Amino acid sequence: MDQISALLQPYKETIGNVAGIVTALQMLSGAFLCNDIRKKGSATEFSSIPFLGGLILTVLSFKYAAILNDAAMLRVNFFGLVLNIIYMTVYYFYTPGHNKTTVWAQIGLSGAFSAVVIGYAQYEDPDLVEFRFGMIMTVFLFALVSSPFLSLGDVIRNQSTEGLPFPMILSGTVVSFMWLLYGLCLNNSVIVWQNVVLVILSGIQLSLFVIYPSTPKSTKDKSKSKTKKTN
After folding, report:
1. 107 touches 223 (CB < 8 A)
2. What is the DSSP string of the chain?
């Protein structure tokens, strides 16, 4: 890894800037979900997990960037933090009155979790905190990225990728690859292995779109049957 790091070192700033830009663009994808909520006029049919998960992740990532004292990571995660606060505010605004208490409880739990992890980082041995905090953040990130696998059974059963967020998965693959390169520039094993796994997970999810179409088999069968009747 040292040799690759030395090779990429002259391009560190460029790679960091590109990684920041593609990450910021991916973060903006939450605006489309907020717009869907606005059109529906209610957040009832939408889960708060993407917003809460994004909020926790950007808080932890911002702290990790501060530990590394890395300007590129600080900029993009501050931007992401502001965006996710806006997204969560929109979600709360469109949540029906009887469900607002539940949302507040979820926000409270998310805030408590973030506070505990950041508090731990404040008291951890400075020589160990970079690796250990990075591992905590990695586990949480893997849980978020792996969430589409929860619907893997439905994908195989219906032989369709309908419902899987292709744009988010594709953009996530690009983002992970850029941060992998940046991790190599920094010679940071946590960032490197974190993004190696993310690229692999995203690649597996993308392969589902090659194996299965986006239209459910039942819908295709109905369409064929209608065509036959018409003929």
Report:
1. no
2. -HHHHHHHGGGHHHHHHHHHHHHHHHHTTHHHHHHHHHHHT-STTS-SHHHHHHHHHHHHHHHHHHHHT-HHHHHHHHHHHHHHHHHHHHHHHTS-GGGHHHHHHHHHHHHHHHHHHHHHHHHS-HHHHHHHHHHHHHHHHHHHHTGGGGGHHHHHHHT--TTS-HHHHHHHHHHHHHHHHHHHHHT-HHHHHHHHHHHHHHHHHHHHHHHS-SS-HHHHHHHHHHHHHH-
On the CB side of 42, CA atoms within 13 Å amount to 7
Q: What's the CA gap between 56 and 105, in Å, rounded?
A: 15
Nearest to 118 by CA among 138, 105, 99, 133: 133
What percent of the chain has a predicted confidence (pLDDT) above 70?
86
Per residue in 139-162, pLDDT (tens digit) is: 887 777 776 666 667 777 777 776
- Distance in angstroms (rounded) separating the CA atoms of residues 141 and 191: 12
Average pLDDT over residues 207-221: 68
Contact criterion met (CB below 8 Å) for 176 and 202: yes
What average pLDDT does the structure give for the chain? Answer: 81
* pTM of this structure: 0.72
**Is residue 222 classed exposed, middle or buried when 0-12, 13-18 and 19+ CB atoms within 10 A define those classes?**
exposed
